[in-house]
Design a protein that fits this description.
A hairpin with a 4-residue loop joins strand 6 and strand 7. Helix 1 packs parallel to helix 6 and helix 5 packs across helix 6. The chain is built from nine helices and ten strands. The longest helix is centred in the C-terminal third of the chain and has 22 residues. With about 290 residues, the chain is α+β, with helices and mostly antiparallel strands. The chain is about 30% helix and about 20% strand. Strands 1-6-7-5 form a four-stranded antiparallel beta sheet, with no helix packed on it. Strands 2-3-4-8 form a four-stranded antiparallel beta sheet, with helices on one face.
Length: about 290
């Protein structure tokens, strides 16, 4: 799933390649991707593309006085083409969800792999009209998101810190991968209750959050849209690396599986050497 650093890089890419061009066609190839119908996607046609903004994991492309907003969900992506096919795409064929064509022949596709179609597209007058954006918590890259603000978000939180970091209404933009990376850098168990963190642990977690995201954004800066996924994977230390040695201590990276996701962690770095209970695996072994 694209998270804050990749979406930030896509925002910069679009601002470099899209701004100033005119949208000539918007072709939905999968009607299910459209979450709004008034204005219709065709209302974007003939309007100039302005700046693109990021809201958490959402991209909002200014097109005239409207906005094309998208959330790429788990398996979505934005694919830029310097020369698009001239024929309209055929609905229901392959991963293509929506195509945007520009006046110079270039454009981009929004695609989604797999069978779970969650990619979402909205055409709105104001990005705040999108419910997911309206519910977002503070952005960790924003000015004012300091350690005191972070600590205030954790006060009274009786949930596990992994879930708190992923909750978009608490902090915008962090998903499964970077929450694993942040917790590993902070040497914090993903199962630890947020409210139980000591001031020193909170300070360490805040520093890890800021450093991890800043480094990921810097790695992604200037990378072409098509190479961002590979860049993300290459920079991850524990997420998606079950069974590999921890790059810090050499212990084996472990995994806890859930119904539709999993987390990775290092026992030595994060849990005092104790493996966390994998409840799904335990049930399978009974």
């Amino acid at each position: 799933m694209p998270e804050l650093p990749e979406v930030e890089a896509l925002k910069d890419f679009l601002n470099e390649h899209l701004t100033g061009r005119v949208v000539t066609h918007v072709w939905p190839a999968a009607i299910s991707v459209l979450k709004t119908y008034d204005p219709p996607p065709s209302a974007l046609e003939g309007r100039p593309a302005g700046r693109t903004a990021r809201y958490g994991k959402f991209l909002a492309l200014a097109v005239g006085d409207l906005h094309l907003v998208t959330h790429l969900a788990r398996a979505g992506w934005l694919r830029w083409q310097d020369t698009l096919p001239t024929a309209p795409p055929k609905p229901g064929k392959g991963p293509l969800a929506l195509r945007v064509a520009l006046d110079d022949g270039a454009g981009f596709d929004l695609t989604e792999a797999g069978t779970q179609k969650r990619l979402a597209v909205y055409v709105v007058h104001d990005p705040a009209e999108v419910p997911g954006i309206a519910r977002l918590g503070p952005d960790p890259l924003a000015e004012g998101f300091d350690e005191a603000a972070f600590a205030a978000l954790l006060e009274g939180e009786r949930r596990q810190i992994k879930g708190v970091l992923r909750d978009q209404s608490v902090i915008a933009g962090i998903g499964n991968a970077y929450s694993d990376e942040i917790l590993h850098a902070a040497k914090t168990s993903p199962f630890k209750l947020a409210a139980s963190l000591t001031p020193e642990e909170t300070s360490r977690l805040y520093a890890a959050l800021e450093t991890t995201l800043a480094e990921a954004v810097e790695r992604s800066r200037g990378v072409a849209a098509g190479r961002l996924k590979a860049e993300k994977k290459s920079g991850l230390r524990v997420h998606g690396r079950t069974g590999e040695p921890c790059p810090v201590c050499g212990d084996t990276v472990r995994e806890v599986s859930f119904a539709d996701s999993s987390l990775q962690y290092c026992p030595t770095c994060q849990t005092g050497g104790r493996p966390l209970a994998d409840r799904r695996l335990s049930r399978l072994l009974k």
